[in-house]
Amino acid sequence: MTHPFDPHIPSVFFIDSPLQAICAVAALRQLLIDDYKMVVMLTDNRQRNRTVTRFLNMRHIAYETVSYNHFTYKWYQLLCLVKRPHNHYRRLFIGFFGAPFHHFAGCSRVADGAHVVYLDDGVATVTLLKHQHITDITYFQEKPVIRLMARRRGFDLYHNLLTMYSDIDNPSYQIAPLCLDLASNDRPSGQPQAQGVYLIGTVSQSYCNQLKISEEEFARKSGELMARLKAEYPDEEMVFVPHRSDEGDYARRLCEEHRVEFRPVDMTVEIELQQQACPPRAVVGFTSSALYNLKKMFPQCRVINVLFAPGEHNKPYRDFLSISEYYEQNGIELIKT
């Protein structure tokens, strides 16, 4: 009898985001998995697809791709219910807890009774463990079919998590800690000196809408934050990494005003900083899951989470605050303004 987190079990991974790819590579190395199949679901976001596949190529991980559409979704759904594959893959890692397609496509590639283990999906995983809350509507629509498939095939779903957030106590799940820094390339021997301050942007329009603050106020407070960091780190290079989905024009203007380098990146900020010769001295952001991930990757790095408080403390603000308090417990400073 094997355990879901035992080493060396032949495994299938089904992922679709850069963070899931990082977690999958860390799991491969942590659990000493040599016999594996890595499957990348291609989404409508081509940049995201390129980031996932480029990272896997950089880590020399073999993979195959599958495209999502209505036909393939129904095909995998039928395949899982009527076909029982006879193969040696005894464990399935799923990147997104609430996505039915991941379950059907993934379970069609493993043997009956295989362990099903979920990887991290950033803040969504924190929310799940703290509040047991899934927002994806298709999950609720397809849950009865997924449950039927699980009974027929002997899968224990929604139970095992290999996660960075293993310190969140939740008896509903069997949890094992994931060592995320195993996904990094090996650094040269010795301890290179930390260099640079990185400010990670957010999707300003969404952030402002949720917290009920104006984009003008957001820009003003962001400028004050840059000035504060420049004063605190006068001799460090400061870099602003914009969120790929942010359409606001404030960032370039503020970077020019405060002499901060504006540096869009093709990869995620986690992957980008992994590739640097020296670890960052400080990383600053807006309750992004990247802050937590980078603290795990670079434990000696100063990581600061900034929360712009609205005039009225609405539910989104309380949700941000709950996540921020959890970050504080893991060595991430909180600045509320």
What does this structure look like?
The chain is of the alpha/beta class. Helices cover 41% and strands 17% of the residues. The chain has twelve helices and 13 strands. It has helices at residues 18-30, 46-58, 70-82, 100-107, 123-131, 137-153, 204-211, 215-232, 250-258, 269-274, 289-297, 315-329, and strands at 11-15, 36-42, 64-67, 91-94, 115-118, 160-163, 174-177, 197-200, 238-241, 261-262, 282-285, 302-307, 333-336. It has a seven-stranded parallel sheet, with helices on both faces. A six-stranded parallel sheet has the order 10-9-8-11-12-13, sandwiched between helices. Helix 3 (70-82) crosses helix 4. The longest helix has 18 residues, at 215-232. The mean pLDDT is 87.
Name its key features:
alpha/beta, seven-stranded parallel sheet, 13 strands, globular, 41% helix, 12 helices, six-stranded parallel sheet, single chain, 337 residues
Query: Could you name the ranges where pLDDT drops below 50 across 5 or more consecutive residues?
Result: none
Provide the residue-averaged pLDDT: 87
The largest beta-sheet arranges its strands as 3-2-1-4-5-6-7
How many strands in all? 13
Instruction: Give the overall shape.
Output: globular
Helix fraction bin = 40-55%
- Using only CA atoms, what is the Rg? 21 Å
Summarize the entry for a quick read:
With 337 residues, this protein is an alpha/beta fold. It contains twelve helices and 13 strands. The model has no long low-confidence stretch (mean pLDDT 87).
